[in-house]
């Protein structure tokens, strides 16, 4: 026996959540060739078909690109601090891709390892993730190469599987998920399925061994020659989580904010002394792959990549994890 | 008591040390009364008034900004005010394209002898600003009008015949040692080829989007030795600008021009050149005759046809998606600064957060630093992962540069840079 919901009912339900004061985010078409996860005004804005995956990731709803930590006022020689106690509404991310949801346990580890990041944690606690399993994949998808699959429910509170005819099977995996869909579904004997691909594009173990033992290999230098050093890969990655803490001055109302940062920027490792340990782009490219396939796995036991392919899709010059790692795996 | 009666406009005045500041001082010593709403900030010269300062004043809550310096011919440093005038002409166009209310910014010349003019200008500008009301929401969101998005590129790869000849030539150049490295297009994007046997990795097709001249500035590539760079006729223009700006010397690189068969929308919708003009060697066949003039895209006309509040609402919506990945800067051949203004934090010039204000500050700085230099390759729009049509801002400046100074970046290797030079007859109908 399964639980099912029609697309119309799902949209109506999303609208109902919005009316009840929840923030609801999901895929929406922003431009003819651009789909992004966005805050939705109505369930009707939700885009459920006709694209592989949004160009951004759901991490921005838990780890915003810019978040106020506290405000400050300077009066003479004294500084007055004001807490950021803006109330946080309950939030639902709907129709997330499995590769987005799977990145949340990764972020959970990072933001709760030595220091518990209250800003992340309170957003995480207020968020319910409803995933939509993939029925297709494109040439940049590689979830199966990093231990996931198009129907993976990792990190999801509920997952929807397409049944055709604009019907979805609903599988709730947590209490949060059940609270959203309880009493809203119908019983059925249909079971949804997800895509069977993409075929495995590389062996992550081979990559891990190579990366872990070829720190000085000329491969990095050669490969990074065309990297332009922007932060597109890191910022559209569901799992990349580096941030900077900056003072947005008086123009921004005197706030100390946490902002996204990327290991691909030369400023990322610039020391106050002027020294920069990663002075060339090759070292930065290597760092990104090393962190994903060696450093993070050594600490937390899993790969810091969910195979969404966003870095490759968005890269202005056709690089990204898949391009680099495929070359490693196939020599 | 009504709120209108309570409103006292805050005016920031950036004035030069030698003329206007003394003019204001004279007004004081002559006991001329003028509204106390003005906060004077003295700078050495109007030529030293950075455009970011004007934006910053409005961002921190000024309701109006007054910028004033010496009359033409009177500059203490000979020509600072002429340079300033030229910059203001263009800066106003950019602000207008963004939808910023130009009535909030007043430019004027006031000499050390014109205490009375200072009194008059401050009084009149304060009253005008009072009538306009507070400039509370500089970057006001609102209902977003529909600006047509650029049409998207075709997805099917179509190879062009000149590919074979291109590979053979590059193989030969590398084998003979004429060049050490070829910067070209590969199947997935740009490739850097250093071995003759790898020349077959080079492609020439309708997916060759990148402007490869951006790679010439990279240290890692320079270190490899003399390069051959493959350019489309539109990209080639950046080499002309780089050469004018002493960033590139022709003998440092072999320029391989490709007569263009088109790489699709939106780049080619407003093609300005189909045949390379400066390349050392040219391959292929142009898709048609050389286009006459460079019409601005319809989407730019649509943007400018809107009222300024709608333009601002449009840009607010667009810039709110900006994540500050700086792909726009990194793909741009003209962005070659060793350290970009956004990376400077002692002192902090631009709010580093990807917030509405921080994004506006960055995008204004990016666009204006390209005034008169942008060759219109459109890479910024193509690279943006948030789908922001950044090229529209560059187009506004390109049109202004053409209309005011008859200049087109990258066309005439002998032409003086627009910013950095001036003419005595530059227009000043907007300067009071």
CATH architecture of the largest domain in chain B: 3-Layer(aba) Sandwich
Task: Give the helix proportion of chain A (percent range).
Answer: 25-40%
- Radius of gyration of chain B from CA coordinates: 24 Å
The oligomerization state is heterodimer
Beta strands of chain A, count: 12
Question: Any idea of the CATH topology of the largest domain in chain B?
Answer: Rossmann fold
Flag low-confidence runs of chain B.
none
The side-by-side strand order for the widest beta sheet of chain B comes to: 6-5-7-8-9
Distance between the termini of chain B: 35 Å
Morphology call of chain A: globular
Total DSSP helices of chain B? 14
Q: Quote the beta fraction of chain A.
A: 15-25%
Mean pLDDT of chain A: 94
Number of structurally distinct domains of chain B: 3
Describe the structure concisely for a colleague.
The complex is a heterodimer of chains A (331) and B (432). By secondary structure, chain A is of the alpha+beta class. Chain A has helices at residues 7-19, 98-101, 103-111, 118-125, 175-181, 204-213, 218-223, 232-235, 281-300, 310-314, 321-329; strands at residues 2-6, 23-31, 34-39, 66-75, 78-83, 91-96, 127-132, 158-164, 167-172, 186-188, 243-248, 255-260.
